[in-house]
């Protein structure tokens, strides 16, 4: 029988070793450059390395690989370089190795960062608008690593002037019964092994606002008369002895009633005017007395018939004398 043959190609995978992170020295001062290197050996083909900081992948990395001495496997390394910042304190930096021989279960190495930094200081006031007589609390917030020592409070570059009213309780400064002498610049200092930092607060005491009492608006058609009487005596009068009354109703005083007087005067003037008008009309209608001929003849007549005869006889000169009725 003829011989049949077949060929098969065998690829042996090199499993990468557990990665190691080097280059970290604890602690790191804020502002210093950090360079971390992750390395793994024995991988075939060359493994892939990825960096993460708090589960966020870091893209700016340097990758390199080289053959091992047996010329069958590879050593792979990756490096990250960044400046230390206080926000990186406590961050977890991880190096993850991916390879087809790991069956989708990558190998991971982790490093927790420790960053030391100078304290940050901030002053928070309990009142945004401090007024006289009130109390004020100033809180000095300081954060640093290592933890800052107890804070130091000063005013205008010197010690607190009134320790009885200005009480320091830990990081708080309590000022009781504020007055204008408390105006000034208050300084809070915090220090640790890295350095010293401070914050300032300018205190301005405001006057207590005047309370406006409600006022009564008098309508424009209303006339109001206000009389103020001040009596000076050798003794202080009691609160119940002072009263405000209408000047027209004060007992025992002959105060004229202006409204009544005005009404009487108006009535008198009106009656006078009416009388003058009526009298004028009367005089205009009875300015003279005119007699008819009959009336003239009746002046000396003993009876009516004689008066008529006399009247007719008196008409001799009727043409010369004419009578007009107006």
Describe this structure in words.
By secondary structure, the protein is an alpha+beta fold. The strands form 4 sheets. It has a 5-stranded mixed beta sheet, with no helix packed on it. The protein has a 4-stranded antiparallel beta sheet with strand order 1-3-7-6, with no helix packed on it. Strands 5-4-8-9 form a 4-stranded antiparallel beta sheet, with no helix packed on it. Strand 4 and strand 5 form a beta hairpin. Helix content is 13%, strand content 32%.
Summarize the structure.
This protein is α+β, with helices and mostly antiparallel strands.
Descriptors for this entry?
326 residues; alpha+beta; 3 helices
Helix-strand blueprint:
Blueprint: E1 20-22, E2 28-29, E3 33-43, E4 48-53, E5 56-58, E6 61-67, E7 74-83, E8 92-98, E9 107-112, E10 115-125, E11 136-145, E12 152-155, E13 166-169, E14 172-175, E15 184-191, E16 196-203, H1 258-285, H2 293-297, H3 304-313
Parallel strand pairs: 2-10
Antiparallel strand pairs: 1-3, 3-7, 4-5, 4-8, 6-7, 8-9, 10-11, 11-14, 12-15, 13-14, 15-16
| Structural class designation | alpha+beta
Order of neighbouring strands in the sheet with most strands? 2-10-11-14-13
Oligomer: single chain
Q: Got a strand count?
A: 16
So how many helices? 3
Helix content: 10-25%
Rounded to the nearest angstrom, the distance between the terminal CA atoms is 182 Å
Q: Taking Cα atoms only, what radius of gyration do you get, to the nearest Å? A: 61 Å
Q: Average pLDDT, to the nearest integer?
A: 80
Low-confidence stretches: 220-253, 312-320
* Major β-sheet profile: 5 strands, mixed
Q: What proportion strand?
A: 25-35%
**H/E series, N to C?**
EEEEEEEEEEEEEEEEHHH
Shape, principal axes of CA atoms: elongated
């Amino acid at each position: 029988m003829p011989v049949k043959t077949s060929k098969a190609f065998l690829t042996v995978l090199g499993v990468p070793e557990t990665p190691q992170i080097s280059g970290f020295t604890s602690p790191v001062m804020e502002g210093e450059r950090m360079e971390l290197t992750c390395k793994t050996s024995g991988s075939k083909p060359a493994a892939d390395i990825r960096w993460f900081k708090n589960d966020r992948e870091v893209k700016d990395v340097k990758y390199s690989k080289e053959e091992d001495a047996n010329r069958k496997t590879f050593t792979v390394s990756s490096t990250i370089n960044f400046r230390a910042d206080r926000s990186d304190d406590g961050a977890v930096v991880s190096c993850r190795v991916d390879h087809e021989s790991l069956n989708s279960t990558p190998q991971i190495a982790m490093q927790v960062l420790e960053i030391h930094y100078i304290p940050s200081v901030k002053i928070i006031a309990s009142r945004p608008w401090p007024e006289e007589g009130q109390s004020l609390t100033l809180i000095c917030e300081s954060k640093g690593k290592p933890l800052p020592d107890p804070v130091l409070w000063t005013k205008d570059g010197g010690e607190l002037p009134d320790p009885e009213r200005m009480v320091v309780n830990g990081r708080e400064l309590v000022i009781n019964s504020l007055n204008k002498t408390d105006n000034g610049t208050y300084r809070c200092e915090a220090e640790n092994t890295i350095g010293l930092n401070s914050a300032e607060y300018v205190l301005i005491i405001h006057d207590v606002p005047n309370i406006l009492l409600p006022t009564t608006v008098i309508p424009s058609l209303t006339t109001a008369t206000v009389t103020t009487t001040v009596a000076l005596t050798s003794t202080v009068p009691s609160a119940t002895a002072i009263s405000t009354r209408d000047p027209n109703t004060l007992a025992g005083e002959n105060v004229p009633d202006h409204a009544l007087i005005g009404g009487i005067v108006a009535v008198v003037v009106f009656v006078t005017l009416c009388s003058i008008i009526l009298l004028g009309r009367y005089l205009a209608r009875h300015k003279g007395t005119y007699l008819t001929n009959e009336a003239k003849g009746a002046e000396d007549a003993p009876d009516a018939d004689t008066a008529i005869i006399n009247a007719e006889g008196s008409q001799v000169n009727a043409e010369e004398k004419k009578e007009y009725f107006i």
